[in-house]
């Protein structure tokens, strides 16, 4: 009998090793793709620059060289910010979906984008701040406050933070913030003109100083999110089952809330309220890795920046010499993916 059990366990073990090896291979391929996309982001745009010029601009810049100036002052900042914002948006989407057990959850659903937008509108209209680098902190604080409100209210009561309560609280925050934003915008044309460029999401017009100011928050958020992988796996089984396995759902909710606050605030401050990245990327990662959140979160680190940088490059060349904001391109790329996700979910439900 022992021999029979061992014979049955061997194929299962071999299958698990193959899946793990395949995950590592695909993850390594995604890293290589990300490197290629970064190089593409530095070379392709309204002004084409050779790889040699890119390398020289990075290691031995020549004063007065226009190509070197374009690389160092324009493309390097937007590429760095694209990597940071893409990773943050994808991770926050995965964490929110894991905590709420809602496959269509993202920062917009929980009212986080609405909170950031309201804070930016107030900064522009009341304080006269017109530079994107000037109101990044308002976006960060607005997103953080909205996330805290949603998780505090959604966690109240005997049942704690249920998916329905969190979604309803997020909808309430969004319903409260949206009319206030509209009221401020229609009463001040200058505020509307400044806000409309930020609201669609963009990587342009940011400086490396912005990334330098926000990278510590990103690191904290990344660490928190990646440490949640095992906890989210248990939480996916339901709170009661998770408790039976020794997990404390309340602790997971608190840690997830901290990760969401930091990551959502950082991403929104860096690039504006870009939609669909936090919704689509975790689904793509889940299709590759399966339901294990440890792998889903790891894949989000590469797939999020890939999607955002590819969209940014497309936006540069699609209507050259003008540009499309990355938020618009992401919407065009992400919308068909979202439709496919919904259709697949409906078929699964049938």
UniProtKB/TrEMBL annotation:
Cellular component, GO annotation:
plasma membrane
Entry's transmembrane regions: 21-44, 79-96, 108-129, 135-154, 166-187, 207-229, 250-276, 296-319, 326-345
Q: Provide the membrane topology annotation.
A: Multi-pass membrane protein
GO molecular function list: transmembrane transporter activity
Q: Report whether Transmembrane helix shows up as a keyword of the record.
A: yes
Q: What is its main location?
A: membrane
SUPFAM superfamilies according to UniProt: ABC transporter involved in vitamin B12 uptake, BtuC
Q: InterPro entries per the record?
A: ABC_BtuC-like, ABC_transptr_permease_BtuC
Biological process, per Gene Ontology:
siderophore-iron import into cell
Q: Looking at the keywords, is Phosphoprotein present?
A: no
Arranged from A to Z, the UniProt key words for this protein are: Cell membrane, Membrane, Transmembrane, Transmembrane helix, Transport
Q: Where in the cell is it found?
A: Cell membrane
- The name on file for this protein is Iron ABC transporter permease
């Amino acid at each position: 009998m022992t021999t029979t059990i061992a014979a049955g366990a061997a194929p299962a073990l071999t299958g698990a090793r193959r899946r793990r090896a395949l995950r590592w291979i695909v993850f390594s391929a995604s890293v290589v793709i990300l490197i290629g996309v970064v190089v593409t982001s530095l070379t392709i745009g309204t002004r084409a620059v050779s790889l040699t010029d890119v390398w020289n601009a990075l290691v031995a810049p020549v004063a007065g060289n226009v190509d070197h100036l374009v690389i160092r002052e324009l493309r390097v900042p937007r590429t760095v910010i694209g990597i940071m914002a893409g990773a943050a948006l994808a991770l926050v989407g995965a964490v929110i979906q894991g905590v709420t057990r809602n496959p269509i959850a993202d920062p917009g659903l929980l009212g986080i984008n609405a909170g950031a937008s309201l804070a930016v509108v107030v900064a522009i209209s009341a304080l006269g701040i017109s530079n994107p680098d000037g109101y990044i902190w308002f976006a960060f604080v607005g997103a953080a406050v909205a996330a805290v409100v949603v998780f505090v209210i959604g966690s109240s009561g005997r049942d704690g933070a249920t998916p329905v309560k969190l979604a309803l609280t997020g909808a309430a925050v969004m319903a409260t913030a949206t009319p206030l934003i509209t009221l401020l915008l229609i009463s001040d044309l200058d505020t509307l003109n400044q806000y409309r460029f930020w609201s669609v999401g963009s990587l342009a017009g940011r400086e490396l100083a912005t990334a330098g100011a926000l990278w510590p928050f990103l690191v904290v958020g990344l660490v928190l999110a990646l440490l949640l992988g095992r906890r989210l796996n248990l939480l996916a089984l339901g709170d009661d089952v998770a408790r039976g396995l020794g997990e404390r759902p309340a602790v997971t909710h608190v840690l997830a809330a901290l990760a969401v606050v930091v990551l959502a605030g950082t991403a929104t401050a860096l690039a504006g309220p870009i939609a669909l990245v936090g919704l689509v990327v975790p689904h793509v990662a889940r299709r590759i890795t399966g339901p294990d959140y440890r792998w889903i979160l790891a894949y989000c680190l590469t797939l999020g920046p890939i999607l955002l940088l590819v969209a940014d490059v497309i936006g540069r060349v699609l209507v050259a010499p003008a540009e499309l904001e990355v938020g618009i391109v992401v919407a065009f790329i992400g919308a068909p993916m979202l439709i496919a996700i919904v259709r697949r979910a409906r078929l699964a439900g049938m």
